[in-house]
Specification:
Two copies of one chain form a homodimer. Chain A is of the alpha+beta class. Among the domains of chain A are: 31-318, Glycoside hydrolase, family 65, N-terminal domain (Beta-galactosidase, Chain A, domain 5); 720-794, Sandwich (Maltose phosphorylase, domain 3). Helix content of chain A is 26%, strand content 26%. The first copy, chain A, has 17 helices and 43 strands. In chain A, the strands form twelve sheets. In chain A, strands 1-2-8-9-10-11-18-15-14-13 form a ten-stranded antiparallel sheet, covered by helices on one side. Chain A has a six-stranded mixed sheet with strand order 19-38-39-43-40-41. In chain A, strands 7-6-12-17-16 form a five-stranded antiparallel sheet. In chain A, a hairpin with a 2-residue loop joins strand 8 and strand 9. Chain A starts with 11 loop residues before the first strand and ends with a strand. The model of chain A has no long low-confidence stretch (mean pLDDT 95). At the A-B interface, helix 2 and strand 21 of A face helix 2 and strand 21 of B. Chains A, B: This is Cyclic beta-1,2-glucan synthase. Chains A, B: Residues 19-301 form the Glycosyl hydrolase 94 supersandwich domain.
């Protein structure tokens, strides 16, 4: 069988169905990882075999340890294979031994990674995944003897225990509280930690234990084990050539006095042509309700591992397969159908950790936006997320900018936009589901009391109403969406025109919600602000050819033609269009400026030109190198919104350009320049002032993944929910012949077939639903759980 | 010349004068380091070559980066040597290349380390030190061609820039704010960082630049340079075999977009028998008053480096050579004369960083105690330290438990003893100097206002007076000296008997100070507390055979025969003796208990038996493994005080035993068990319940170094200041024939020769000063700046 190899380059390719990315060369330009999660237990693994595991929905709650180093790869959970007779050893992935191989292949899939290789006549297959419904990861290794003689091999694991903390710099202190023991009845190690970096109920530090027991077990009786990094690696040694590989057996040092690591060693005899499978598990059982031994024994055998692997496919299918597009754009298909959902859910919402950032919390704005990814497949998950974020609000309406998802707590800041994302995302939920009961859900405030979700949203908006400048523009506070504008408005004088536009967009919808509930007084109040916002933003925010970003506490303009650097910012232009602040003429002008200054080879820049000088009055955005991240690079999150804005002004071709340039598989032609994985979005791409123009960074853990999915489906394909039903309003490249789109909507399934033989960008001629012509471009809301065929003729 | 090799073992030895420790085997059981500092710029370097540099008196303000890992050694500032013709390469220290050597030798000296080796026919000598009066370190390398042919060699440096932060886990963010450039006129690199982890004047984070410019320069025109870790190491590479060693020249990547590192490469041609010297410098100039180029050019040449190295000896001589003992105990001589002073000053007071801990601050109690090391050589430094700590006090008398020495700030806690160390150390200063003017120095409080040092001490004592239990015992608060008792008394109910003893000791002296100043009211108040303390501590604190440590908030005894674990604590026994709380009988009994339960093979344990179960009501001490650190190990700081207490009850032989067992050179016979450097004190040594009984840890950065010096000189040799003059009261082993002691005292120099041909432990028969018999054992206070000969006859 030869497989189609999509977007193939010298490092790898997508499989035909787009569900696997296959890497054939372990030395990619940066570690190309997979972030695997079941929502409670997660792991990161790169194509080299480097990686680490964590539990409890927070990257900081590490189970195994890593030191993150892009150049040298992280420390990993490593597996050594050794020929017991010849003493030759290599590893089941390229790292750490980095042995010469006959072939090498890594398949990063949805919920698993598989390492296939052949070295020294031994074929090995290492499958790494997380059990869908238990805090257990499985490392299943199959060895096949393809040599001409009987082989005796041993397989040895090694990793360091982290157990409850991620910052590695205090390891010299934390590691001494770890306690490991070998237990015969699980063929493995049980490990506790008597210190956790959280205060106890009285606020005392260093007075609670890590609330889990970790384990590492194997499906065969091990011939030896070890729990000590020093005995395994050897002092001044290196994982590529550890002391343990020079000894017949492992040192079996466990207990409370070692430099805690985990190793199990099993021996396998393989006749010529024979193959055998051994299953290792790593897990962390919460002491209060899980038995680590039970967990270990349940999953540490070949049958259970195989069953669990089948379950992984079923598990992910729920999130992936409720929606499918087929367009002429293979990159769009692969990303929309598979990887953007996976990235958003597995990494951003669940794993919350990647090479570039280890998070312990939910960002108020961040995961709220991300949760839109569930709207089509499982809107109840979006609802859950909305309620969870509503709970992080104070009675005064402001919120925790982020909070720890383990044991709570986070910073109350003066950020000007975070609180407003609650009504914004609520609107998306309502339009998808029409589930207005959410407005009556009662949710607590952080500082006591409870109120309905409606009331929570109202308080957020009212809080924003208290933060206006005398000329009627929202104040910047600590910063707006752009965290790097961190010094503009701390004195509550500087303004954010973008917050004004965002608030305008929210009010537009919230006025009717308030009216529907009979809260006419608030609706009227909103209406007044709504109208004055439009007037004031256009009066004070229009710079002649585009909209300003902000003014500083000292009254200086930011994002103005008067500036030498940071003349034009992206967000105020596209949100003027999205929100409707801009009339047709200004929308056109503003977007022309975006096209002229910001739409570049690798996506739409966040601002232009980048700051080359540090500005204490603007903030840390000016401290980045010019062209890097927010400072004039492509910040993918915002770049997706430019797609949306282009469709709104009818510039479908530009919208598609703005999309294509940030759609990762399209960067496959220059992997050494781009550096990042072609199957997930990067947080940012270097802008023109960078000598590494076009280089991506901060992959996986970025809110851009959900938005890239959304702008493709809702704004390019133009299939989006309204209260009336599912709207069909494509804004596609003329050259497309059409596309199909299968998606769930309020229980029913719509099989939409769009015919663009007319080769237009926009415009619907006819729509047939189940064979019947309908009158407008809104599909009826069947609520019947059935499939409905939709034929759309553009023209 | 053959040198005497003192305390020689398989890893190394002390030179005859004790001023160098020579390591002949790079693979010691743990990295055996040197901490070199001039008070403002510091560096750590191990015998392998691993290490890092920092500035501004705080380990967290790193200039070069390291990841601390005892097993694998830290990342270092590495130097590669390469034969340009054969392409063979090795390193100027063992790490990172770990090449086979003909010989290898590291000399850790006072203010420098020298690496001598011979590899591939090339003798190399690398001298690493810090310029005494500038923020510059010098790496001077001399290569001698001992092969039979002409050799062309290049020498290449490599290290990562840290620039202002130590916790390495956020490097992925911080590194992108570093900016490097190559400058022809310094033959090297200049490096800035546009982000520093301190808030600006408005409390805004991420809004200030690192306040230094770092540089790396070389005395020859380099043939190439690099500023990028990725191009130097190569992705997935390793420092043992970097990509750069496979290329003719370095990649010359600098600027703001790289993974900031520093490398310079010079080429040397060496005829047979020829040798050449090249000088590299690394430094960090504070932008507001130093010019980095000037600094670089001043020191980056062979003559300046040689001059600076001579200055290092002169610099350290001021602190080392004002005092010298000669006893029959070589370990005591070497440690007292050289290394304990060096450790206390170079690491604890100045460098404040080592493998086991990176500090950014001064501990209120810590460096105050440490500063006693200056009393003999430079008491004005002790005074400066006292005034600095007094400034960290609030008007209410309590203090910052520690504070950042860069840009200020630290935690205000409910610790019960920290504030009291001010009057305690003041007393030591007064007795040494009789400089009572310090009491009138006016020093500010943290929360406004100023007062005399006397008043600061008084407020500390008054604050302590407000923290008593109803039965007249001081309360524990967050903890006492023993930080690990962190959960005993947070509700202000649990008591600390040790704090009572400590306060008693302080009051004993302070009552007369108050009287002298005419503050009779306070003197009387102190007197009342003083007397009631003695009564109450003996009434409630005596457990039958020893004194209790504490009671908990729930009223449980800690350190009582009623306890199964933690039956007896060291501090309450020895401070009962030191303070005079215990009468003769109880002093004897309490110390008998110390001898019975605590004085073990490797020193006096902090408590017995160690806690094996976690106790939430006691604190994190119980979370350590049994026998580790405070949990029933030898905590060297307190173990030194047991020497003091034994001398006070006349048990000179036991005092000497307690001393000998913790005096590091005495552990040279079992370096693989002890693991630590024999030339500096460890913070702790594993106790009997540890499987690694006798293993040391936390070397260098420990307050035990000053105290080990003090108990040897003041309490074993018994030469200690009183207001009347220098008291001579030895408490030595009978078998000693005597000892000599040269020391400064109030300007004059005393050459003391003690004759113990009577072979007694204690007792003075006759003392002759400058040939004249004196009447008691207190040497007159000459204040004449001259030398005085003192003959002491024991008996």
């Amino acid at each position: 069988m030869t497989e189609a190899r999509k977007f193939k380059n010298k490092y790898g390719y997508f499989t035909d169905d787009g569900r696997e990315y296959v890497i054939t060369e372990p030395k990619t330009p940066k570690p190309w990882a997979n972030i695997i999660s079941n929502g409670d237990y997660s792991l990161m693994i790169s194509q080299t075999g480097g990686g680490y595991s964590w539990r409890g929905n927070a990257g900081q709650n590490r189970i195994t340890r890593s030191m993150q180093d892009i150049i040298k790869d992280p420390w990993g959970k490593y597996v050594y294979i050794r020929d017991v007779e010849t003493k030759e050893f290599w590893s089941a992935a390229w790292k750490p031994v980095m042995a010469d191989y006959e072939y090498y292949e890594v398949r990063h899939g949805i919920g698993y990674s598989i390492f296939n290789q052949k070295i020294n006549g031994i074929k090995s297959k290492m499958k790494v995944f997380v059990v869908p419904d238990a805090p257990v990861e499985i490392i299943e290794i199959t060895l096949a003897n393809e040599s001409e003689r009987k082989r005796i091999l041993d397989v040895t694991t090694f990793f360091e225990w982290g157990l409850g903390f991620a910052p590695d710099e205090h390891r010299e202190f934390h590691k001494i509280f770890i306690d490991s023991k070998y237990e015969d009845d699980i063929n493995g190690l049980l490990v506790d930690k008597y210190l956790w970096g959280f205060p106890d109920e009285k606020g005392r530090n260093n007075n609670i234990s890590w609330e889990y027991t970790a384990f590492h077990a194997v499906s065969e009786r091990p011939k030896s084990y070890d729990g000590d990094k020093e005995s395994f690696i050897g002092i001044y040694g290196h994982e590529s050539c550890p002391r343990a590989m020079k000894e017949d057996k492992l040192a079996q040092r466990v207990g409370r006095f070692v430099d805690a690591s985990g190793s199990l060693q099993v021996e396998l005899e393989l006749k010529k042509g024979e193959s055998k499978t051994v299953v290792f598990t790593i897990g962390a059982a919460m002491k209060s309700y899980e038995d680590p031994k039970e967990l270990a024994n349940k999953y540490t055998n070949v049958e259970a591992a195989q069953k669990a692997f089948e379950d992984v496919h079923k598990f992910w299918s729920q999130f992936i397969d409720t929606e499918e597009i087929k367009t002429p754009d293979e990159a769009m298909n692969i990303m929309t159908n598979v990887w953007l959902k996976y990235q958003s859910i597995s990494c951003r919402l669940w794993g919350k950790s990647a090479y570039y950032q280890t998070s312990a919390g939910y960002g108020y704005r961040d995961q709220l936006q991300d949760s839109q990814i569930f709207l089509i497949s499982k809107p109840e998950y979006t609802k859950k997320q909305i309620l969870m974020h509503a709970e992080q609000q104070f009675n005064e309406g402001d919120v925790l900018h982020w909070w720890f998802t383990i044991r709570g707590g986070g910073p109350r800041t003066k950020c000007s936009d975070d609180l407003l994302w609650l009504p914004f995302i609520l609107e998306a939920y309502l339009k998808e589901t029409k589930d207005f009961t959410i407005l009556d859900e009662r949710v607590s405030f952080l500082d006591g009391g409870r109120a309905t979700v409606y009331e929570h949203c109202k308080r957020a908006i009212e809080r924003a109403f208290h933060r206006f400048s005398p000329r009627g523009i929202p104040l910047m506070g600590d910063h707006d969406w752009n965290d790097g504008l961190s010094a503009i408005g701390n004195d509550w004088k500087g303004e954010s025109f973008w917050v004004g536009e965002f608030l305008y967009e929210i009010l537009k919808e919230f006025i009717s919600i308030a009216r529907e509930r009979g809260d006419y007084q608030f609706a009227d109040k909103c209406k007044i602000v709504y109208e004055s916002l439009k007037e004031n933003l256009n009066k004070y925010g229009w710079d002649g050819e585009w909209y300003l970003q902000a003014t500083t506490d000292h009254g200086l303009k930011v994002g103005s033609k008067e500036n030498e650097e940071g003349k034009i910012f992206l967000n105020p232009q596209i949100w003027a269009v999205i929100s409707g602040i801009a009339d047709k003429d200004r929308a056109k002008k503003a977007m022309e400026a975006v096209t002229k200054y910001l739409l570049k080879d690798y996506g739409t820049l966040l601002l232009y030109p980048a700051y080359t000088k540090v500005r204490n009055d603007i903030g840390y955005i000016t401290r980045y190198a010019p062209g890097l991240r927010e400072n004039g690079g492509v910040y993918t999150h915002a770049a997706t919104w430019s797609v949306w804005a282009y469709t709104l002004i009818g510039e479908s071709e530009l919208a598609y350009e703005a999309y294509k340039r940030i759609c990762p598989p399209n960067r496959s032609d220059n992997p050494d320049g781009y550096m990042c994985e072609p199957y997930v979005t990067p947080g940012n791409t270097d802008g023109p002032l960078s000598p590494y123009y076009g280089r991506g960074g901060w992959t996986w853990y970025t809110g851009s993944s959900q938005w890239l999915h959304r702008v493709a489906t809702h704004w390019i394909l133009g299939v989006r929910p309204t209260y009336e039903g599912l709207l069909i309003d494509p804004s596609i490249p003329k050259e497309w012949d059409g596309f199909t789109y299968r998606r769930q909507f309020r229980g029913a399934t719509y099989l939409i077939n769009v015919n663009n033989s007319a080769h237009v960008n926009r415009g619907i001629k006819e729509i047939y639903v189940d064979g019947k012509l309908i009158e407008n471009n809104v599909l009826p809301d069947f609520k019947d759980g059935k499939e409905h065929r939709v034929k759309v003729l553009m023209g």
